[in-house]
Amino acid sequence: MALFLLDHGAGNVQSLANSIKKLRYQFSWISSPEDFQRASVLIFPGQGAFHTAIECLTARGLLQPLLDFVNSGKPYFGICIGMQVLFASSAESPSVRGLGVIPCQINRFSDTDKAVPHMGWNTAECFDSPSDPQSMEGISTDSFYYFVHSYCVPYDPVQNPEAAQWTHSTTQYGNEVFVSTVRKGNVFGTQFHPEKSGVAGLTILDTWIRQSLIGRTPVTPIASRIPRLPKPKDGFTKRIIACMDVRANDQGDLVVTKGDQYDVREKVSSSSATVNAAGAVRNLGKPVALASKYYDAGADELCLLNITSFRNSPLCDQPMLAVVRAAAERVFVPLTIGGGIKDTVDPDGTKRPALEVASAYFRVGADKVSIGSEAVYAVEKLRTLGSGDGTSAIEAISKMYGRQAVVVSIDPKRVYVDPATYDGPYKAELIYGEDDEPMNGRRKAWWYQCTVSGGRELRPISAVELAKGAQALGAGEILLNSIDKDGTGAGFDLDLIRMVKNAVTIPVVASSGAGSTKHFVDVFKETNVESALAAGIFHRDEVDIQDVKVSVKAAGFNTRVI
Ligand code: 1PR
Predict the structure, then answer these.
(1) Atom 7 of ligand 1 has which residue's CA nearest to it?
(2) Has the ipTM of the complex gone over 0.90?
(3) Does 307 share its domain with 345?
(4) 28, 311, 407, 509 — which has fewest CB within 10 A?
(5) Cβ of residue 341 lying under 6 Å from some atom of ligand 1
(6) Phi, psi of 357 (to 5 degrees)
(7) In a 10 Å sphere around its CB, with 0-12 CB exposed, 13-18 middle and 19+ buried, how is residue 297 labelled?
(8) Closest ligand 1 atom, CA of 264?
(9) Are 144 and 292 members of one domain?
(10) Is 80 a catalytic residue?
């Protein structure tokens, strides 16, 4: 029996390959239509947009051989888009036809009651019996799995009986119950990413591959499906993210560093006082070792930011690629890579568009790319033109890989103003200081101004305007930092986070200022964010990731406690 993986060329397939290597199975890649003849077991880890997947498969002559394989009765496992292509069509790309094995349409989630994309960890409730492990395909009702998608198949046996016949498990997001796994005959598919779902996901892959390689017993056709009405609360968890700011130190070694309000150099003391002179770059560890440590500690997601990439950072000489490749071999939760996702030029003059830079990161195992400075310039241009012109990194990457692969990282700074005299464009976004804190004898107020180049340059745009513009251009998530709070341990900037979260319908990651488990509870209670990120307290071993989760859970929120 020969296990093959299908790469349609527009997503992170490396993570699945890494998972299967970790599970010690041998596999080959499908690289031509003829390879399907040699495959006896096939996994298709598709990602990105529906139309991109179909177009890429068609262009490489793989679409019909894929359909033939699925119809051949040999074991097939489709992951995310690899499952969605089995359907007839998707609202994401109405003019594009899928394989039509499941004669139903895929719809978009409603964003009236929740953020879309559905990005994060959720449960899956099987119809089959827990006493028959093969029928469960390794899924456990106690486990959480990583989802990232905007389109889903609603589970409704009355309105959508064909899809219900294929439904193996359902998941609830907000008020919507959708199909999270399909299973019929030789075909299995998961909407979530087992290769990104930690040990729980590796168990599914192991169970399915082992059964498929030794020969599967025929699946009994499903007789009927009962409706599943939405429960008062879904299984979606709050995500806890560990972030590593990476840069070269003065010796040229790539290290994880951590700033105070973005200043990453040690403070050097003079005889008279402690001054912010240029000390050494703080070194808090090696990026891959720390990523591995945080995965083991139960982080739901990891973020690696190349914080000096605003300097010249040619793709051909990009040390972060090696870091991401090595981290992805050890870490089976989502990885976001930021810094330098922009048009670059190699020393020989070769131009590398942002899409190519992002593709290089996806190929080595990144799941999302985070765009900072370039997003600011793109939204400033959007303001001038009135609409996107398709040239920005956000637009190009989200068109190819889907919105869920594009994060926009915002680095705002408070700008204090006298509200009585302030006549700028962000009057409606002013935040007033607590207890009428005085400034120049008047009530203190501020707005949040965006910066570029790691906080070194202020730009004439607010955090709220940037977040809205980024969403309009195609971003799927906002990573919201705060230069004022970064490294202070004084708690998240709740005013900023609340205001940005209320301005967009995509998920928001709260970042900067976490100093205790209570701060995570506060940010989830006081704002509606889906996730919270910290760096310093984890690097310095001051707070344990599991302790954060236990506190968040005790406060009434779903969390993935391992
Ligand atoms: O502009 O697209 O090349 O992206 C550059 C990226 O690098 C941006 O995401 C930007 O936020 C980041 N960055 C640039 N300079 C710094 C710096 O610190 N000097 N770090 C920097 C951003 C903020 C968070 C930090 C949280 C939590 N660091 O990453 O992890 O504030 O910290 P805390 O929990 O210790 O408070 P581009």
Answers:
(1) 307
(2) yes
(3) yes
(4) 311
(5) yes
(6) -60, -45
(7) middle
(8) 19
(9) no
(10) yes
